[in-house]
Amino acid sequence: MTETQPSVDALMAPDDIFSGNLYVELPGDRPWERDDRKKLMASCADLTRRYPAIREGAQNANVTVEQYLLNTMFADLLPAQLSLAKLTFPRGARHIDIDVTMRLAGEARPGWPLPKGVSLVAKARWNLKGVDRQTEDVYPNNNPALRVWSFHDGPPGGARIFEVSLDVVCRQTARLEPGTRKQRNVLTQRLAEALPAISELTGERLRDWSDFLEWKRRLIQANREALRYTSRTLGADQRSVSFTIVGANAGALQQAIGRLARSDVLAAFDTSVSEDEWVFQLPEGEREPRGSDIGRKTRVRTQVRPAADPSGMPWDSPATAEAAFSLSDDALAAIETSGDPSNALGRALKLIPESGFIVQTAVQDLSQVNRQARALANLSDQGGYSPYLARYIFDAAEARTPSFQTPIDRWFNTHLNAEQRSAVQKVLSAPDLCLIQGPPGTGKTTVIAEAITQVAQRNESVLLASQTHTAVDNALSRLPFHPGVRAVRLTRNESRVSDEGQEFLNERALGRYYRSLANAVGEARRAAAAESEFATRLARFTQGAERQVVELRAAEERVRDVTSRYQSAGDQYLSLLQGLKGRGVAVPKSATDWSSSDSSADLLDTWLSDFEEAVPVLNYPLRILLGDRQPGPGSHGGRQRFELEAQLTTVVEKMKTDASLIEKWQRLQAELDGLPEDDENSALPAEKLVAYFPEAADLMAELQSKSLPPLKRLKYRKLARDLIRRIDEAAGLLPEANEQGDLRDDLRTELHSAERLVDQAQRNAADYFSSHRQFDFSLPAQPDRLVAADLDAQLQSLLSENSLRLAEASRQQQEGDAWSDIQDDWIADLGCDGVAERDWETIGDDWLAECNVVGVTCNENPRTLDDPGLTNFDLTIIDEVSKATPLEMLMPLMRARRSALVGDHRQLPPMFREGQDAEGLTEESDDAVPEELALTPENLKKYEKFVTASLFRTHFERADDSIRERLTVQHRMHPDIMDSVNRFYEGQLTCGINHPNDERAHGLTIKGRGDLPVISPDKHMVWIDTTHDDQGRAWTEPAPNSDKARTNDLEARLIVRMLRDIDDSWASDPANGGKLKEIGIVSMYQAQVRRIRQEINEELRNKPFKAIKYELNTVVKYQGKEKPIILVSMVRNFGPKASNRRRSSRANVARFEYINVAFSRAQELLVVFGARDTFAPYEVELPPMDATGSPTIANVYREICDVTERNGALKQASALGELPPTHAGATRR
Predict the structure, then answer these.
(1) Which parts pass through the membrane (predicted)?
(2) Sign (positive or negative) of CA dihedral 758, 764, 770, 774
(3) Buried b (16+ CB within 10 A) or exposed e, 1061-1087
(4) Which of 86-95, 181-190, 1130-1139 is the most confident on average?
(5) Are the C-beta atoms of residues 241 and 327 closer than 8 Å to each other?
(6) For the chain, which has fewer Cβ within 10 Å, the N-terminal or C-terminal residue?
């Protein structure tokens, strides 16, 4: 810009700072733009991966993806409504650039490439000032353009509280004609001044943390005391290293040894890390020197003497000494737990340079401090990869809540409980931040593994981080063996990676991926074979099922056909009966009342047969009355004769079709022949006439009346003749009725036969389908209710439901036939020894760039991720987050679009430095360090919120329920152990172990003095009271200023006795099958860990353990671990005057987080060694579980001891029996 160029402000109205022209551009290839260009391309690649429509739109428009996104968001010459937010927090008068986010706030434009409800966000740089590249003079930039350096997806909608709304016309500078002047540029100094900070709280925190880092940097620089050594050898005790140390003179060397001897956080550095070969000088810049940790100086006296061979040394009077330092606590712990101690010892020694410098470990933190300062600067200038990270990084209440829950179609771990599934769902759904609190044993690592797998299956990437190497390695080890999860562990210090994490390093990670591929192909082939077998079984079943359905349907159809014909015959039969009724015959019931049952039909048949036999004589009485027939000599009169003649007539008629009736005819004829000839005066068959035709009774009475007038007699005679006519007509219907009756009888027999066939078919079908239960047919309880149509419908439904499966099985079968040989060769190649190592040399870098799960510690050098191009991720998961400071969280948080923080703010808080003793920060000031820098109580109080405050706790309390989840079902501890731990969780923990007495049985019986039990199988929480020693004498801890401070010889010896007793008990039980019992030994203090280690080493010199495997460490190192048995040494013992002793609320034993972690490591048995008189009065402050509660002061130890005593599990130290003499002396009072 020339000096004559007028300011754009002069061209605009005073209140017009939020409208005008917005000039935008993309970074080019100029050197100062290359970093922005790289970020732009990475962000575009990320967007196109998640939204393929963007790439399609760019291809259709024949432009690059970045230009397409620029055109979509900042279409040239078109108006736009934008929401502008300032990311940069000013850091001085020379601040030149301001980084902002621009978000489309209006309606989606035609052809919008993102889903509904998703907007575009651009991160861009706005040059407030220019810099003369020759003079480096700064001058105002009155007419800037907005340079876009990344695109992201974001929320739609209007401006939020930290944004301003702009109504602009977009102008792309690349489309301007050369020499075109920018008019009404909205990017003015006044607009910059009007932009609110994205978060005032974040601004404050950034300033506070910057001050803290500066203090820490100066503290480290003031503690750069170093000892130069020229050689090192393994000590005779196999647990220490002897160094040949040299210095400028005897006095200086003695003084330096004395100062470093007071430190327990030392490291050995190779001479190459120093700019001077003899005087320790770390170079400035990006180098990150790493030393090998060593332990404290041993008590062996150091003799300083003149150097025997001063050649090559830069001093006039060099001095030398032999000084012994123990191996580091981590190295000693690794040796103790190793299956090959000699090999582990060799590895530990090999890590220590053969010559170099012994320096305080804090020196290593300097490069970390510098990295954290750069991370703070980046957050201050540009925010993180998540566009609005600065808004919510210190206030979870500002994090967005999900508008919908991400669906989960498949759970890779099918054993997750409801809370764990909800936690995974929230991790997937939270747009900015998710928080998972996982108390001990509740499976937070299980949640992490499932969430990572779910994200990876969605073609997204995960950065897994933690404050500790162990936590990262543990979470990685829980990942499923799946080719969709390409996991790698990255670090510049591979010696710190645990055994669990080793398989995720470099070529081993590639080998694991190869094995997962081979395993997946094998599983796919086995699954294809299983599907083929299923298809075969289904085909066989279908064939048999169809046969059963066909047979049952045929039987049902025959029944329906016969039933129809039977019903038709019955209907015709009843129709004829209706005809009789219509002629006056007294049919017993109306035809519609007759059922089709066999008994009803038989009754009707009997009645009809009787009627048929009576018909021939029914009109005789009427005819006699009418005078048509008179009885007399020789006539066949009389009732009996009439009846026999009628029966003969009927039988004769039936004999035409039934020859079997001859005997009946002969019998009736003989009976008729035998009747007397003078029977003509017998009674007429009038009774039957009246029975079948009731109207005949009155009619015959009238006709027989002597006084009936002629006209009426004429009338009744006429009625009588009509009745005779109807009797004749009824007789005419009988042959057809007989025929239909016979037909109906035949059909009834046929129907019974058909029904038996149906019954058999139903039983056959029931047997068949019952024998194929795997196909899940719904069968009635009784076979006679089976219906072919229902079975066929279920069969067709089964085939329809499995049609795709069968088609896929067929396709897989065809592919298997075509590719099986190739797959066999490929699986064999993937399994070849050394194949991953060979491939790593050629494709290692490319494979790293494709990894979708990357594990690092929070303090890892960012270049470890940048070098292979792993710069941005979809999700960052930080485990054990309650132990991490915000500074440590910055690096992983700034690299992802969204984050999940997993931890428990009721366990250990952040530490000042990773290697410090579990006691916390030392209370003593080093005289050589300036007072304003030393870790004095005053300075500790000044920076307390940085050292001990957990950001996770504040986040969890302020977060919306939709983005946080608390796990409360624990699967680690026996309920008796959980009862003690639950005091720190307001009783919210529940036991998820189904049968704890079986699943958490420790199986131990330990007897002590008088052969009385100290530990029995039914006791899972035991407290050994060490107020008095094994002889019942009062015991007191060493003086605070002694070299044995924070140790307890009595508890160390009791623990060794307990280890020996457990070893003997476990070894004596053959049911254990030689399996080693794992035991963890935990103390609040590092000094006591060393003391216990000394006692164990002495014990093992004469008699090694044969049935147990132990791991000894501090509470700090034990967080995240678990063991079947945990022995805890509480250490502190105030002696006989314990009740009057003031108890510090800052002591580790008074901090509930330490107690919680120490006690909650146990699965089956927890044994606490502690002085009841000292701890019972301890008041422990318990903060509320939620923000709405209030802190409480509780005598937690007293409550635990009281419950343990009521359960019969509180024992005196003397109960274990008399101890052998101590190896290192004791303190008694």
Answers:
(1) none
(2) negative
(3) bbbebbbeeeeeeeeebbbbbbbbbbb
(4) 181-190
(5) yes
(6) C
Tokens of 431: 């747009």
To the nearest 10°, the Cα dihedral for 493, 499, 917, 1173?
170
Output the DSSP codes for 823-879.
HHHHHHHHTSTTHHHHHHHHHHHHHHHH-SEEEEETTS-THHHHTTT---EEEEEEE
Alpha-carbon gap, residue 350 to 348, rounded angstroms: 5
CA 879, chain centre distance (Å): 15
- From the number of C-beta atoms within 10 Å of its C-beta (0-12, 13-18, 19+), residue 456 rates as buried
8 A C-beta contact, residue 622 and residue 724? yes
Packing angle of the helix pair 418-429, 444-457 (nearest 10 deg): 40
What gap in Å lies between CA 767 and CA 991, rounded to an integer?
Answer: 46
Q: Which residues contact 679 (CB under 8 A, 6 or more apart)?
A: 637, 638, 640, 641
- Residue matched to tokens 């016309």: 169
Does the pLDDT value for residue 346 go beyond 70?
A: yes
d(CA 350, CA 468): 23
Rounded to whole angstroms, the Cα distance separating 838 from 689 reads 118
Pairing verdict, β 896-903 and 433-437? parallel
> Above 60 in pLDDT, residue 647?
yes
Tell whether the torsion through CA atoms of 941, 945, 947 and 953 is positive or negative. Answer: positive
Measured between alpha carbons, how far is 217 from 263 in angstroms, rounded to an integer?
19
pLDDT digits (tens, 9 = 90+) for 588-598: 765 445 555 66
Phi-psi region of 299 (alpha: psi -120 to 50; beta: other; left: phi over 0): alpha
Q: Look up residue 528 and give its amino acid.
A: A
- How far apart are alpha carbons 388 and 762 in whole angstroms? 70
Contact between 551 and 786 under an 8 Å Cβ cutoff? The reply is no
Task: Give the percent of the chain with pLDDT over 70.
Answer: 89
How crowded is residue 401: how many other Cβ atoms within 10 Å of its Cβ? 14
Nearest CA to 104 among 153, 139, 142, 67?
153
| Cα separation, 449 vs 295, whole angstroms | 35
CA 803/CA 790 separation, integer angstroms = 20
CA separation for the pair 366, 224 (Å, rounded): 11
CA dihedral angle for residue 385, residue 390, residue 391, residue 394, rounded to 10 degrees: 120
CB-CB neighbours of 197 under 10 Å: 18
Burial class (CB in 10 A: 0-12, 13-18, 19+), 700: buried
- What amino acid is encoded at 732 in this protein? G
DSSP state for residue 442 in the 8-state scheme: S
What is the number of other CB atoms lying within 10 angstroms of the CB of residue 677?
A: 9
CB neighbourhood size of 819 (10 A)? 13
Task: Judge whether 639 and 685 are in contact, CB under 8 Å.
Answer: yes
Token output for 737: 């009725």
Q: How confident is the model at residue 91 (pLDDT cuts 50, 70, 90)?
A: low
Which residues, in sequence order, are CB contacts of 813 under 8 Å at separation 6+?
528, 532, 535
Q: Which two tokens stand for residue 181?
A: 């002047």
Q: At 775, list the tokens.
A: 């196909």
CA angle 1044, 1048, 1051 (to 5 degrees): 155
Residues 6+ apart with CB under 8 A from 1011: none
Strands 146-154 and 119-127: antiparallel
Strand extents, DSSP E, 3-128: 19-25, 79-86, 97-104, 119-127
List, for residues 118-161, the tens digit of each pLDDT value: 899 999 998 887 776 677 777 777 789 999 999 999 888 888 89
